[in-house]
Amino acid sequence: MDxxxxxxxxxxxxxxxxxxxxxNNLVNLKMKVKNAWAQIDTQxxxxxxxxxxxxxxxxxxxxxxKETLEKIIQARNSYINSNEIEDKTKANxxxxxxxxxxxxxxxxxxxxxxxxxxLSLQTELxxxxxxxxxxxxxxxxxxxxxNTAILRFPSNLFAKILGFKExxxxxxxxxxxxxxxxxxx
Length: 185
Description:
By secondary structure, this protein is mainly α. It is built from seven helices and no strands. Helix 1 (2-59) packs antiparallel against helix 2 (66-81) and helix 2 (66-81) packs antiparallel against helix 3 (85-106). The radius of gyration is 24 Å and the shape is rod-shaped. The relative contact order is 0.14.
């Protein structure tokens, strides 16, 4: 009878060790997702930091294009003031749409297109757009690994109990998927 106690105790210890290992793995994956989002957030913040300089450069050339400039400032402020990933994503989409409009307006102002500061800002924004795209891909890959882990057996038995939930991918809305989101200079 004494050996049955030790067998049951060994089984319980093994189960506890497996649960701890599953939990630690899920925590590790969740932290990787947070890190991946932080990389996107860093690039988006860099992009938004370029906006005031861009606005000041454009203001002198297109005073009557005030509405587009105001929308860009509003999208920037929405991003800065938001804490949720969903809100930041919406602000990013709004900014992308308005930047496309701004650069389309630049076509109407040859002096602006030739302005060295404007050209420099365009280059910086283009480089930042590339980094955002890479960061978004990395984030989505990390989210896919995390979501797969919490849905896979046996971790799916414990994930919900331990408070782990699926995370949304960073996707553009349908309108933006159909449009070319690259900024052409």
